[in-house]
# Entry
Amino acid sequence: MPFAPTPLGRLFLQHFGSGPPVTFWHCLFGDSSIFLPVLDAVSHDHHVVLVDGPSHGRSDPWPHPLSIAACADAWVQALDHQGVTEPAVFGGLSWGSMVAMGVALRHPHRVKALVLMSTMARATPRRLIPQFAALSLA
# Structure
């Protein structure tokens, strides 16, 4: 089943290939399809799990503020629901990288490695929050 229930609503997951698990979370305003161009290169010897974050792609809408911690927990819960319980490579782009770092901090036993693309390791500066809010209304 492609959906996993989490405290942030149902997350949409896609599975490809077999082998050790690798999982990806996308950037804000994107969805898991951004990882399709690298899928063939990774899924030939890995079990790849692509995740659509809350209110993105085919996941359920989430009308409340999101935290990195809540997203990290939801990612692990979604994988658990899908039977992916061994340590995995967690990869992300931008927001997804921040969530992947959250998984590493909150669930270190689940992380084999991190793939962090276009990220920062600190919270979004308060001065940028209105800009992100304006983008979400566009």
